[in-house]
Design a protein that fits this description.
CATH architecture of one domain in chain A: 3-Layer(aba) Sandwich
Strand content of chain A: 5-15%
Oligomer: heterotrimer
Number of strands of chain C: 6
Distance between the termini of chain A: 56 Å
Largest sheet of chain C: 4 strands, mixed
Chains: A alpha/beta, B alpha+beta, C alpha/beta
Radius of gyration of chain C: 20 Å
Largest sheet of chain A: 5 strands, mixed
Shape of chain C: globular
Structural class of chain C: alpha/beta
Radius of gyration of chain A: 23 Å
Number of domains of chain C: 2
């Protein structure tokens, strides 16, 4: 049966392309010696590579965003309006990696920053953009310093800036330092933050391609997504489309953490069997324990029980059918000893801490969720609290300006759905549970 | 014109209105908090959610797909949309709470969220009775509360500035106040601080919210988070009547409501007039109402002794009889209405005197480009149009001091306080004074002193500095019977929701005064000069046809929002 | 954890704060001003430079008292209230003076399941203060952090918005605290990709001395 097979092909002999095993690849001279900026040069000097052709190649590749939403990248690039010389256009590279469980962009920025720069430049060329902002979360201060140094070298060598490599194309890259807010990873919040406002997300429509930063057409892509662009140019969209799962192709960085013997960031094709990732790649469960549950793509993606992952591969369709999402492919592996309710409590705390507070359901709802789950965790909850929690999830989902409310509600909803017995076991049997501030009528 | 269907009713609309604005204007009561027509719409309160669908356009033909009955197939957006962030579009189909259970549920859920941290302050909150949160909760909200935890505590009863009090717990983070200071008044004194549920509006440390338009945030705040320090706890909204009238603090003539309890002005709030002040009022317009209540005269006096009205009027006519008109100086007033000044100029001409002049009250540097002017009087423009010009103060002062003036007739002003002359200078002059407050500095020099009805007690017309003629309406009653005033008051004192309600009539605080358009004809009659007008409405009817400067300024035309007169000196 | 839901009170900032930075220090050097102007030139409007400006000020003054935020706002040419609103939105801008070393210990998600709370409680015990507080000698501030993006090397912490310390255990914390007391902030550590261990025999960088590999994470004793 096809479902049991990996879609990652012969992954054991996979040759890495995002993080190829080259010492000091982060250095400009090493990067140059390893086909560095070759794709950019080709795009700028070869007649066949006009901006539209670049976008079409990315469309052909089937690349989907690696930042969590999985939107087709080529399609997103095509949303930019026709060029108007009086209206500036911008690219934002989203390096605000703050989704719990996700740590791949950090490794990519450390070990292959020029691939990110090159990707930004190719994307800027494709969309006729002259300034790209690389938004990096403030906690990655050391990595920002590294990237600033390498960027300066790239400027000096003429890979960035005016008339790149002697062509007509000029593009600047500006590294913007965040200051500690998960919400800035949301694309419209990133734009507000870039503009120096409080980082509130914005209502869509208008979409960033119509009205983005400072009101100008803008495209926002994740670091890893843009890093794929030079590969697509160098080796072709078709080559890319044949890697991994056909509906969600390409190399991807899996960030595996939790109760495994060998956590870390691994580059493999999409479509890996979850079981392969846990048992082989990550060295199996720590201490010989049994798997209880896992989160496939960062804390916002629904939890999967151990008995739900048979034959499930890491690509958007398979995970959706299994009842979860690809997200950032940041996987958290949980063994049999994990207290699911305590774990969920910490997640609700995270969202409560990180909500920007702009819109009502999220601002109030995240706190209420944390209150109830905390009460449950402490043994003072009641069965009807579970009903209230599920109700609140319905009240928050789809009602807000951005998806943080959905991201806060899904863990609660699906964890209760899939581990109900654990929650019920913690419920109090007292008719009036202790610890509440107000007694119910 | 394009069509839109709301709750199965299709109607036309024009322009590109916001969906929420269109619904409100056509009587669909969509609940909302953060939307305000004058400012950007952040769509963050999430209360105005509706189901929205557009005709499904066939990608090949570019035309709508039709169903069996020939109607366009409507594709509904997968998520509920905030109507404040969407423009109405041709063919749009909208379902509100009236026709959609999902929307009804969404509105209830949203109110539930708003209420979980909202303090139970209604009994002590000034906003109660005119609170959108109360009203919408009553109509659309949940029955009770399921929230069993501690509500978030924030700073309460904080003086944000000299005029505005903040209660952080009541705030629902609609950001209207912050948007006001950044988009409208541009003082940038407010910001939301902190993040998440800890959000609330505040000034940055070291800054007070002391801009001259600070109190506007009180009106736009949909809850009791921002309240007026001046009128805090003074009266419940249902204890006051409100009258649509004009502010008289400066020459801009901003439209306002005077709120009255026990026949005293309690509060002044803005009234929307897109041609004059839009939705706003300067703080100075709101705070200068005590003069209507305090230090009011007890009645007419002759040389300081109380007399009856008829005696006072006769005394005035006697002052003027037989005096050489060139030795009578009439002073009109830019504080007084057009009608009163008009009658005064008729009286002046009847006794052979030159046209009245008025004393200018300009505070240089006080004005700005918005709602404040250097000119501290409301009717300078009206006086000018009547041919009453600014007095040459130096010349007049010297005439008085050199004994060239036998009678000084002052309409509703205070020449001594204005620096025209001293009480001593007037010792040899007969002074007739129509005045407002017993603190008037010319009063000691007055031979006959006539208490005058102030702007909140009379019917009249004022013309602002832009030539906009607007009507005053009486907000509080005066002593004595006056048919015109009674009729006007009966028509225009409504409660908060527009219901005529005579609950506020009481006998207390009735000032014994008369409008100029009552006093002057009575005085003129004593000189056998006829001024036969049924009331100020008729005075303006005559003026609007006889004087080009007032062309079009009839009471019917002025209505609630006034009439823009043509520029002075420009014939129609 | 998360005291806020147990004590959900939001304090008001001091509306008439005493100036902490004396006037003769409350200014930017000409290099700093040039730097700020450079940042301003990289955005369509000056507002974009406010985050960089606040970072520069925080690095210079140690934290961001109101007068410093005002200075930044004036230098960039934006309203003081806007800069203040931005400064209070983000966690990494310190609005109060912190200890010499701020220890942001991650307890979120992966770190929670790999002993993050154990490390937090251990540090609290060793330093004698709770999370959110500063030691009396002004040396250390402990803070509980949300996901720092180093989940594979859990549990971990960050030192004063700077260097990450990965794969914590009690011994490592003891050594770290001692080093910090001496004024020795650890060097940047590169975490080796497991695939690099296989393909390159170790970390791929030759320009860092401190490297760590991903290891089997510890068992959590507590999840809160």
């Amino acid at each position: 049966m096809e479902a049991k097979k990996t879609k990652a092909g012969d992954w054991r002999s996979y040759q890495r392309v995002l993080l190829p095993p080259v010492k000091d690849l982060h250095k400009l001279d090493v990067y140059e010696n390893n086909e560095g900026y070759k794709a950019l040069r080709e795009v700028l000097t070869t007649a066949k590579w006009d901006p539209t052709s670049v976008t079409n190649e990315v469309k052909k590749s089937g690349l989907k965003g690696r930042g969590g939403a999985g939107f087709p990248t080529g399609l997103k690039w095509s949303f930019m309006p026709p060029v108007d010389p009086n209206i500036p256009r911008f690219l934002c590279c989203n390096g605000d990696e703050s989704e719990p469980g996700t740590f791949k962009d950090r490794q990519l920025m450390e070990y292959n920053p020029h691939l990110v720069f090159e990707g930004m430049l190719i994307a800027s060329y494709a969309m006729s953009i002259k300034t790209g902002y690389l938004y990096i979360r403030g906690e990655f201060a050391d990595w920002i310093t590294l990237m600033e140094e390498e960027l300066e070298k790239a400027y000096a060598k003429g890979y960035v800036g005016k008339n790149i490599m002697g062509s007509d194309f000029s593009c600047d890259i500006v590294i913007h330092k965040g200051a500690g807010a998960y919400i800035c990873g949301e694309e419209s919040s990133l734009m507000s933050s870039l503009e120096g406002q409080r980082a509130y997300p914005r209502v869509k429509p208008p979409f960033p391609a119509q009205k983005g930063v400072w009101g100008y057409p803008t495209t926002i892509n994740n670091v890893e997504t843009l890093a794929c662009a030079p590969l697509i140019i160098n080796k072709g969209g078709e080559w890319f489309s044949k890697i991994g799962a056909p509906s969600h192709p390409g190399p991807v960085l899996y960030g595996i953490s939790g109760h495994v013997n060998r956590p870390g960031v691994f580059e493999y094709p999409t479509g890996m069997l979850i079981t392969d990732l846990i048992d082989e790649v990550a060295g199996g469960m720590r201490g010989g324990k049994k798997l209880k549950a896992l989160i496939p793509g960062g804390s916002s993606t629904p939890i999967l029980r151990a008995d739900m992952i048979e034959g499930v591969t890491m690509d958007a369709d398979s995970l959706r059918d299994a009842g979860s999402m690809m997200g950032t492919s940041g996987m958290l592996i949980m063994d049999e000893d994990v207290d699911i309710v305590s774990w969920l409590r910490r997640i609700t705390h995270f969202y409560h801490h990180e909500t920007c507070g702009q819109c009502t359901p999220c601002r109030e709802g995240t706190g209420w969720l944390e209150n109830i789950v905390t009460r449950l965790d402490e043994g003072n909850g009641q069965l009807r609290d579970l009903d209230i929690l599920l109700d609140l999830c319905t009240q928050m989902e789809g009602r807000t300006v951005c998806a943080l409310a959905d991201a806060a509600a899904w863990p609660v909803r699906y964890t209760i759905d899939r581990f109900r017995s654990e929650f019920e076991a913690k419920c109090s049997t007292d008719s009036v549970p202790g610890g509440g501030v107000l007694e119910t009528a | 014109m394009p069509n839109i269907t709301v709750d199965n009713e299709t109607f036309e609309f024009d322009g590109q209105p916001r969906l929420l604005q269109l619904c409100l204007e056509t009587g669909v009561d969509l609940p909302h908090f953060c939307y305000h027509p004058s400012m950007s719409a952040p769509a963050n309160c999430r209360q105005c959610l509706v189901e929205v669908g557009m005709p499904q356009i066939n990608r090949d033909t570019g035309k709508p797909n039709l169903d069996e009955s020939g109607q366009p197939v409507i594709q509904f957006m997968p998520k509920l949309q905030t109507s404040c962030s969407l423009d109405a579009a041709a063919g749009m189909v909208v379902r509100t709470h009236k026709s959609s259970e999902l929307v009804k549920r969404a509105q209830k859920d949203n109110l539930e969220f708003l209420l979980i941290n909202h303090p139970l302050d209604c009994p002590i909150c000034d906003q109660a009775g005119h609170c959108p949160l109360q009203n919408q909760t009553y109509k659309h909200g949940p029955e009770g509360s399921r929230f069993e935890f501690r509500k978030v505590g924030k700073p309460k009863q904080i003086d944000l500035g000299p005029n505005v009090v903040l209660d952080g717990e009541r705030c629902i983070n609609c950001t209207r106040c912050v948007r006001f200071t950044s988009e409208i008044s541009k003082s940038h004194q407010l910001t939301i601080i902190e993040r998440g549920v800890r959000n609330y509006p505040m000034t940055p440390p070291g800054i007070e919210f002391d801009e001259p338009y600070s109190m506007n945030v009180i009106d736009i705040c949909p809850v009791g988070a921002l309240t007026s320090k001046d009128s805090r706890f003074r009266a419940r909204i249902w204890e006051m009547s409100k009258t649509a009238s004009i502010s008289t603090v400066n020459a801009r003539g901003a439209n306002c409501f005077y709120w009255v309890k026990d026949n005293k002005i309690v509060e002044v709030t803005p009234r929307t007039n897109m041609d004059v002040n839009e939705y706003w009022l300067a703080d100075e317009d709101r705070l200068d109402y005590r003069k209507f209540n305090d230090n009011r005269p007890l009645g007419p006096t002759i040389s300081g002794a109380d007399v009856a009205w008829d005696s006072a009027y006769k005394a005035v006519s006697d002052c003027l009889k037989g005096v050489d008109g060139t030795r009578i100086q009439f002073l009109g007033s830019a504080f007084a209405t057009v009608e009163d000044n008009y009658l005064l100029s008729k009286l002046a001409s009847a006794v052979g005197s030159a046209a009245p002049t008025y004393l200018a009250h300009n505070e240089v540097g006080h004005g700005d480009t918005w709602l404040r002017t250097d000119d501290r009087t409301p009717n300078t423009n009206g006086c000018e149009r009547l041919g009453i010009h600014a007095a040459d103060v130096a010349a007049l002062k010297s005439r008085i001091q050199s004994g060239e003036v036998d009678v000084l007739y002052v309409l509703e002003d205070d020449p001594v306080a204005a620096g025209l002359c001293s009480v001593a200078d007037l010792s040899g002059v007969k002074v007739v004074l129509h005045y407002y407050n017993s603190t008037n500095q010319t009063l000691p020099a007055a031979d006959v002193a006539i208490p005058a009805a102030m702007a909140v007690e009379t019917v009249g017309t004022l013309v602002n500095d832009q030539g906009h003629a607007q009507r005053l309406r009486p907000a509080k009653s005066i002593a004595g019977v006056n048919r015109t005033l009674s009729m006007e008051i009966g028509k225009c004192r409504a409660d908060r929701h527009g219901t005529p309600f005579d609950k506020w009539y009481d006998e207390s605080n009735l000032v014994n005064c008369q409008p100029g358009w009552v006093s002057i004809p009575r005085i003129a009659a004593g000189l056998n000069v006829e001024m036969n007008y049924k009331g100020p409405r008729n005075i303006m009817a005559e003026l609007s046809s006889a004087n080009d400067g007032f062309s079009g300024a009839t009471y019917e035309a002025m209505g609630e929002h006034g009439v823009r007169l043509s520029e002075m000196g420009v014939t129609a | 954890m998360g005291d806020f839901i147990k004590h959900p009170f939001v304090d008001m900032p001091d509306r008439n704060p005493e100036q902490v930075i004396p006037n003769d220090s409350l200014m930017f050097t000409s290099e700093e001003k040039t730097q700020i102007q450079t940042w301003i030139s990289r955005y369509p409007t000056a507002d974009g430079a406010v985050m960089r400006g606040l970072w520069l000020a925080q690095e210079k003054f140690g934290f961001l008292p109101p007068e410093v935020i005002k200075l930044v706002a004036e230098e960039i040419g934006i309203p003081y209230a806007n800069a203040y609103g931005v400064a209070t939105f983000y966690t990494q801008y310190f609005k109060e003076k912190k200890g010499k070393h701020v220890l942001d210990i991650c307890t979120c998600f992966s770190c929670q399941l790999c002993g993050g709370y154990d490390m937090l409680h251990y540090v609290e015990e060793k330093l004698g203060v709770h999370s959110g507080e500063t030691t009396e000698d002004g040396m250390f501030t402990i803070q509980e952090a949300e996901c720092l993006g180093a989940c594979g090397s859990a549990p971990m912490l960050q030192i004063t918005n700077g260097v990450f310390v990965h794969n914590l255990n009690k011994d490592k914390i003891d050594a770290l605290l001692d080093a910090l007391r001496e004024g020795n902030v650890p060097a940047f550590t590169s975490v080796t990709l497991p695939q690099d261990e296989d393909d390159l025999g170790g970390n791929r960088r030759t320009d860092v001395t401190s490297v760590e590999s991903y290891i089997v994470p510890p068992v959590s004793e507590t999840l809160s």
